[in-house]
Design brief:
Helix content: 40-55%
CATH topology of the largest domain: Nucleotidyltransferase, domain 5
Number of helices: 11
Shape: globular
Strand order of the largest sheet: 3-2-1-4-5
Order of helices and strands: EEEHEHEHEEEHHHHHEHEHH
Number of domains: 2
């Protein structure tokens, strides 16, 4: 019997809803919030208000695009955390009410686990999915971690950032250069025409498989400050080369630890997930590593890299099969629960 899962994602500034038939994506609707651009970053209060405006039309569109009736839904999965509490409350509150109205199970989902499980989404024939165990580099604006995945919900973080995330480093560097928000995609765009070896930035020496990006952000800041003293138009003249060099440094930091993790664990099935997995430099580095180290790699479609509800529904589907349902007393959490 087919299982239809409605997924709801509202952890940050994107309101998203998706419908899955088992793991087959029937719809995946995302409403972006443009209001944050003029502030250069997400404003939590404005984000939660926008979610309230978007959530009903987004869910209605997702069900309509899936060509099903709401009464056909088997369960509703929602992002419980981590994320912005105000945003999470909008999604979780609607999910609870809708599940209660339809008298169907409610499923809470960890946002970071969902990014990993996005690799099991099906929207084309014979799509290859990872086999257990595999390593997944989950990297976004708020998280950077290497996860050993031995089953759908058996995940061990074997490496993580001790301070800032890689996505935050991208965004901070972009802000220093006065690039428009969101900064990460802008750096990726300009990097395509730049020389990645034009400027050198030091890479941190962090033990084991952990990461650090705070020092890199500081070095970029000081480097640009010194160069602007000599030439006030330095950034504009060297924008593409700067972006390419910054991107190359961040990707190098990410890949060195991922390669180390593969060697230490002996696992050659490697995936990437999270918003930064959309970065073209990281994707190319994965392709290069797959040849050099004989990896079997899994790179998500761009639509499943950034925050989306299809990945929430995927996690919901696997929990549904296990009978792991949530109660109406579940409350959101801002920080990721420890594993």
């Amino acid at each position: 019997m087919s299982v239809y899962i409605l997924g709801i994602e509202s952890s940050c500034d994107d309101t998203s809803a998706a419908v899955l038939n088992d793991t087959l994506v029937l719809s995946n609707v995302i409403a972006n919030q443009q209001i944050h651009e003029k502030f250069g970053g997400v404003v939590p209060e404005l984000a939660s208000r926008a979610h309230q405006q978007n959530i009903i039309p987004v869910i209605d569109t997702a069900i309509h695009d899936a060509n099903i009736n709401k009464n056909s839904l088997s369960a509703i999965a929602f992002t419980r955390g981590p994320g912005l509490l105000g945003s999470l409350l909008v999604g979780s509150s609607f999910a609870k009410a809708f599940a209660l109205t339809l008298n169907i199970p409610l499923i809470e989902v960890d946002h970071m686990e969902a990014h990993i499980l996005a690799h099991f989404l099906q929207d084309e024939e014979n799509k290859k999915v990872p086999t257990f165990p595999f390593l997944c580099l989950t990297v976004s604006g708020g998280h950077t971690q290497i996860v050993k995945v031995t089953d759908y919900f058996e995940m061990e973080i074997i490496g993580k950032t001790i301070d800032d995330a890689a996505g935050e480093a991208f965004d901070k560097a972009a802000k220093i250069m006065s690039l428009p928000y969101p900064g990460g995609p802008m750096i990726d765009r300009f990097a395509k025409t730049g020389n990645p070896n034009a400027f050198q930035f030091s890479e941190p020496r962090i033990p084991a498989l952990d990461y650090s990006f705070s020092g890199l952000k500081t070095s970029i800041l000081y480097f640009l400050r010194d160069q602007l003293k000599k030439d006030t138009s330095f950034i504009e003249k060297n924008k593409s080369d700067l972006c390419a060099s910054i991107q190359a440094t961040i990707v190098s930091i990410l890949m060195k630890k991922l390669i180390m993790a593969s060697i230490q664990t002996g696992i050659k099935s490697i995936a990437i997930a999270g918003g930064v997995s959309a970065n073209s430099g990281l994707r190319q580095a994965m392709l290069d590593a797959s040849i050099k180290y004989n990896w079997e790699i899994f790179i998500p479609k761009l639509s499943y890299s950034t925050d989306n509800a299809a990945m929430i529904a995927a996690a919901g589907y696997f929990k549904f099969k296990l009978g792991k349902f949530a109660g109406q007393n579940q409350v959101p959490y801002a920080r990721q629960s420890s594993r």
